Amino acid sequence: MNDTQFPALDFKTVELCYNWPKKEEFFSNFPNYAGLFTYQLSPDDVKTLSGFNVNHYCVIFESLEKYSQADLSNLSAGGFFSINGIDRGHGALEDIFTFVRNRADAQKINKIRLCVNCDARDKNAFSEDEIDAFIERHSGTVALDPQRLSLCFQARRPSGMIDFNRRLASRRPEISKLIHMEPPEPLNEIENAVMFALKYGDPLLKNGTVAPKFAPEESGRLYLSALEILRSLEFSNIPGVFFISCPTCSRCRIDVISLAGRIYDRVRLIEKPLKIAVMGCEVNGPGEASHADVGVAGSIDAGVIFVRGKIIRRVKIGEIEDALMAVISEYVE
Ligand code: SF4
């Protein structure tokens, strides 16, 4: 299948990642990513990452209380402000909006985000009627300009959050570009992937923004997981390696899982777009993975290296990994 059949991702619609300990390492390994996505940063991160080419970022405040107490004067150079954990305990939504807006305006920060608790099971959550009334009040005004406001309506269950945002966007299509999808609590990789897929598959939600959220123990590789999710959605323009391996069957001639794991460890930091396949058998592997730039398939006591489905080399079983890496190196250089 030709890559040009797949849509290109609008990078502005994806935010990576607040709860993420090795940002400097990431930007050192993937210097070209710094200018692509929007990054969620803590106020301290903004200083630490000033040497990297991070063009778009939002500064995360964990609560309205932290936002109200923060010294914002050092944060006026760029980015926008996102305030987490807003609920009815903080007062009326209109008053909260005015407070956040005024503090941001004082620092010449154009855009703000309100992350609002809308979990139907929580008595402190804002109701749909309250959200509707807020939008109605500002409809047609500059307050709802996507350059100035982002709205994140959160519920603990991903399906509840998606349903809430869908209902809202269908009633109020004028705010579909304002809607930011981000769970209040970490999701596992599959739940994050489902959230991405539902967002980009929905005409009313696809123009808003999204941020995955992973558990802290996974956060060492969190950025790679987010990129893998985007690649698996087959956007045509995600840099880095799109890794394919076969599910194996009775034809399988090699240990696909361990070979794939070893190769993945060697290629995961490649930034150039590249599809790599590890397939179980020579009979069907090259054909099944003919959309891969380069791949390997198992044979009897041997392996074959293929490029775009065409076998170019036959190697001994112990030489598969290095032979594949040699061809990959030619691509990457
Ligand atoms: S590539 Fe070969 S081993 Fe893998 S699923 Fe296809 S037929 Fe089975």
Question: Helices, strands, pairings?
Answer:
Layout lengths: L14 E2 L6 H7 L8 E4 L1 H6 L7 E6 L2 H6 L10 E7 L6 H14 L5 E6 L10 H11 L10 E6 L3 H14 L8 E2 L7 H13 L7 E2 L11 H11 L8 E5 L10 H12 L6 E6 L5 H4 L5 E6 L2 E6 L2 E7 L3 H13 L1
Helix pairs in contact: 7-8
Bound molecules: iron/sulfur cluster (SF4).
**N-to-C SSE string, H for helix and E for strand:** EHEHEHEHEHEHEHEHEHEHEEEH
The rounded Rg comes to 23 Å
Instruction: Please tell me the total number of domains.
Output: 2
What is the helical fraction, as a range of percent?
25-40%
What separation lies between the terminal Cα atoms? 25 Å
Can you tell me the residue ranges where pLDDT is under 50 for at least 5 consecutive residues?
none
Structural class: alpha/beta
The CATH topology of the largest domain turns out to be TIM Barrel
| Top-tier CATH class of the largest domain | Alpha Beta
Report the major sheet. 6 strands, parallel
Average pLDDT number: 90
Strands side by side in the biggest sheet? 1-2-3-4-5-6
